[in-house]
Amino acid sequence: MNGKLMVVIPCYNEEEVLGETARRLTLKMKALVDAGLCDPASRVLLVDDGSRDRTWEIITRLHAENPLFEGLKLSRNRGHQNALLAGLMTAKDRCDFSISMDADLQDDMDAMDRFIAEYSAGCDVVYGVRNRRESDTFFKKQTALAFYRLMKGLGVDITFNHADYRLMSRRALAALAQFHEVNLFLRGLAPLVGFQSGYVYYDRSERFAGESKYPFKKMLAFAIDGITSFSVKPLRLITTLGIVIFLISLAMLIYTLVAFLAGRTVMGWSSTIASIWMIGGIQLLSLGVIGEYIGKIYNESKRRPRFIIDRYLNEEGADPTVDA
Ligand code: UDP
Ligand code: MG
Q1: Total domains in the fold of the chain
Q2: Which of 59, 66, 124 is nearest to 98 (CA)?
Q3: Which ligand has the nearest atom to the CA of 140?
Q4: pLDDT at position 134, please?
Q5: What is the reported pTM?
Q6: Is the domain of 174 the same as that of 113?
């Protein structure tokens, strides 16, 4: 027996899929319990990330109908990563291991058996990795690929094609709780937790219903966040760039002097304009990058709570307060 499992699902405006997700999860959890893979006291924790549609209503109804479902309501929309963290931190002291997945049925539930097998074999963190990305649009595939490459290049250890479908043991969750950063990028944090880890490969299907809550703008913000939360390489890159430009300017100085002495001074309008634009551009970009990091420090230094729990629906009547 592997102990109590808690499946954690962040939900933001998911009224269209939640019913079906719950139906399939009920069957899946029963199958897992019957197969002796997890304790009958296992639960599904649905985290409502401040949805504006009927998501919370549906969660309340599911909880009333079936004690398998617990509900956690955040006080307002805090984004996928924070919602997931709120769920995981609630699960931390209430289960032996957790599995996080999306609400939209893109993650193959049948892979859970293999997650648990890895856990039984001693892994504290098990990453779900997508086999293929056929269900994604060409654009999403390419941008995702570029993102992973960039992260690798910047020295950030993330698992290729792993989203947030992940098993974490109680021990791993306790370790995760020690990371207090406000700029959350959970898939980058999980490897930092360490412990023995495993991989499970699965096919990701299309979103069952509704539309993606990650439009391009959010995806871009997520990528920039991921990079700047885990790597200071962009700052170093700016320094390197500065040195290179300084060396070039030395060469230019010599060239200018030579040209002056040779009496060929009034020419080169194009080179002047070009360098003004280029240097200006590079400076602004560099300032922007530095600004990103200062913004991060600003956010971290305020130490605001990462989520605030409004309500927690569970059988035991447990207190909704969790260290945020
Ligand atoms: N989500 C959330 N808060 C948000 C945006 C998304 O909790 O502000 C949840 C959403 O309900 C889903 C998961 O995060 O369960 C992943 O979102 P989505 O499927 O829209 O992203 P995609 O798969 O398109 O990248
Ligand atoms: Mg999705």
Answers
A1: 2
A2: 124
A3: 1
A4: 66
A5: 0.79
A6: yes
